[in-house]
Amino acid sequence: MPELRVSEPAREVLLHSEFDVAVLGGGPTGITAAVAATCNGAKVLLAEHCGFLGGMCTAAGVTNFCGLHANVHGDIRQVVHGVADDLLQGIRELDGLNEPHSIFGKTHTQAYDMSAFKCTADALLLAAGVARGADGRLDTLFLETKSGRVAVRARRFIDCSGDADIAHWAGVPTEKGDDLGHLLYPTLMFRVGNVDAARASDAWRSIPALMDEAEQAGDFRFPRRGAIVRPMKRPY
C-alpha cells in the first residue's frame, strides 16, 4: 500500500538568533558540551524538550553517577573531573549527594537527589552564560516551541539528543548498535519508600536468585539478571 502524504505549504520562519555552537539535548553530555564550549569563549545555545535539564539523570530516574570512580591500585577514587566536579559540588551544597557506594561488589556509584541535580544544572549553565532554549552541511536548526517554530543558526552543531536526531535529519551516516545490531539493554528504575537502608544495602546479592526462582515458576521472564540497589539522600 503506497504511503499517503500531505503537502505542507511553504512559509517563512523567524530566525531567532545565531550562535557559535548549538547543542541539542540537555542531558549529561549536552550540559558538559555546552559548558565546555562557553568556557572556551563560544556563544552557545542548549535546546532541551523537557522543562528541566538532566535527561536520563532526571527524566528517566537514573539517579546515580556510575563511572566517575575507579579502583586505582586498590584505592577507590574519583577519576573523572572537569564539569563533573562542578555538578557534584553544586549537588553537595544542596545536601543532595550521597557518598560513593559499591554495587555488584566491584563498581562504585554515587547517588544523588534528582531535584538537586536539576537546580545545579540550571545554575551551572546560567553561570556559564549558555542560552537555553541540509545539502550535506547543517546550517539551521528548527525548534518547535510554545511560541511557535523558530530557527537558529550556528557555526557548529553538537548532537546530544540521545537518538542522533540532528545527524538523522541532516542525512549524516550513522550506526545503530554493534556489528550484529545489538543495542544496550534498558533498565527499569523505580523508588521504594520506608526501607531500612542498612538492611537493604546488600539486597543485590539475593535478588538474582529470587529472579531465577520466579522465572522457573513461570511467573516472569527476565532479559537480564541482577539489580542495582542504592540508598537515596532523601528517601521519601
* End-to-end C-alpha gap: 53 Å
- Low-confidence segments: none
Strand order of the largest sheet: 8-2-1-10-9
How much of the sequence lies in strands comes to: 15-25%
Q: Cα-atom Rg, whole angstroms?
A: 22 Å
Query: Major sheet, described briefly?
Result: 5 strands, mixed
Order of helices and strands: EHEEEEHEEHEEEHHH
Mean of pLDDT: 87
Number of strands: 10
Q: What is the approximate shape?
A: globular
Structural class: alpha/beta
Write the layout of secondary structure elements.
Blueprint: E1 14-24, H1 28-39, E2 44-47, E3 64-66, E4 69-72, E5 75-78, H2 83-93, E6 101-103, E7 107-111, H3 114-128, E8 131-132, E9 140-145, E10 148-159, H4 165-169, H5 197-200, H6 203-216
Parallel strand pairs: 1-2, 1-10, 2-8
Antiparallel strand pairs: 3-7, 4-5, 6-7, 9-10
Q: How would you sum up this structure, described in words?
A:
- With 236 residues, the protein is of the alpha/beta class.
- Helices cover 26% and strands 23% of the residues.
- The protein has six helices and ten strands; from the N terminus they run βαββββαββαβββααα.
- The strands form three sheets. The protein has a five-stranded mixed beta sheet with strand order 8-2-1-10-9. The chain has a three-stranded antiparallel beta sheet with strand order 3-7-6, with no helix packed on it. A two-stranded antiparallel sheet has the order 4-5.
- α1 (28-39) links the parallel β1 (14-24) and β2 (44-47).
- The radius of gyration is 22 Å and the shape is globular.
- The protein starts with 13 loop residues before the first strand and ends in a 20-residue tail after the last helix.
- The model has no long low-confidence stretch (mean pLDDT 87).
